[in-house]
Amino acid sequence: MNLSCIAVDDEILALNKIKRFISKIDFVDLKYCFDNAKDAINYLKANQINLILLDIEMPEITGFELLQNLKLKPYVILTTAFDHYALKGYDFDVDDYLLKPIQFDRFLKAMEKIYDNVKKDYKLNLMSENKTEEKDHIFVKSSGKIIKIFINEIYFIEGMKDYLSINYKDSRVLTLMSFNEIINKLPQNNFIRIHKSYLVSKSKIQEIATNELLVNDQKLPIGKTYKKNILDLKIRFSNQ
């Protein structure tokens, strides 16, 4: 799979430079270049991509205003000549910040980082779609013990550095395990990844808001990478 992206910049020379850089990278597929944010917004309403390479200071609609118009944001790399926007970029949860004039080695490093994240997302989604095995319990190690946990009692699982916190029934257990390992243990038709740090039981979801879920009376954040999964889930819920 390739990394699909668009570039948005009102400077033709900047777009040409991005085209030239991407032509040297075999895993990136540049779909379109836009010299204004309005056309980019219309494109993104009808098309899904992995990444936006986005200038900030543009006439009529700025890069930040473009991001405000998107319900589901892909990965975002800001490309700008002004370093004072870096802090504001964090408010929009951007993934990288390239300062013009952009150097190829720095550009390549940023694209490799995004590509690695996209591949991880793809593998997790593929595992979720293909996992059909039905179980009623799992076993996990914690504090030198083997603990049996019934799957239908799990509310959510939270990543905590090298550990996972499994929140179930009236209990919580910490186990030295990765998300990939726990995903392999669980029937994925019953669970949904909502954030890089959270895996949630679909049947335990009480409310779905724009940026968070309510599970067991606890508010859990929805990560931008997983918002499409949540949108699909909302549609299925509403049709039931």
Written description of the protein model:
It is a single chain. With 240 residues, the chain is an alpha/beta fold. It contains 7 helices and 15 strands. It has helices at residues 12-22, 37-46, 63-68, 86-91, 104-130, 179-185, 227-238; strands at residues 3-8, 28-34, 51-54, 75-80, 96-99, 137-142, 145-150, 154-160, 163-168, 171-176, 191-195, 198-201, 205-208, 212-215, 218-221. The strands form 4 sheets. Strands 2-1-3-4-5 form a 5-stranded parallel sheet. Strands 10-9-8-12-11 form a 5-stranded antiparallel sheet. A hairpin with a 2-residue loop joins strand 6 (137-142) and strand 7 (145-150). The longest helix has 27 residues, at 104-130. The chain is elongated and about 60 Å long. The model has no long low-confidence stretch (mean pLDDT 87).
List the helices and strands and how they pair.
Elements: E1 3-8, H1 12-22, E2 28-34, H2 37-46, E3 51-54, H3 63-68, E4 75-80, H4 86-91, E5 96-99, H5 104-130, E6 137-142, E7 145-150, E8 154-160, E9 163-168, E10 171-176, H6 179-185, E11 191-195, E12 198-201, E13 205-208, E14 212-215, E15 218-221, H7 227-238
Parallel strand pairs: 1-2, 1-3, 3-4, 4-5
Antiparallel strand pairs: 6-7, 8-9, 8-12, 9-10, 11-12, 13-14, 14-15
What would you say about this model in short?
This protein has seven helices and 15 strands.
The oligomeric state of the chains shown is single chain
**Unreliable parts:** none
**Through-space gap between termini:** 34 Å
Number of helices: 7
Strand order of the largest sheet: 2-1-3-4-5
Helix residue percentage: 25-40%
Rg calc = 20 Å
Strand content: 25-35%
Shape: elongated
Main sheet record: 5 strands, parallel
What is the H/E string? EHEHEHEHEHEEEEEHEEEEEH
- What value does the average pLDDT take? 87
Tally the beta strands.
15
- Give the structural class: alpha/beta
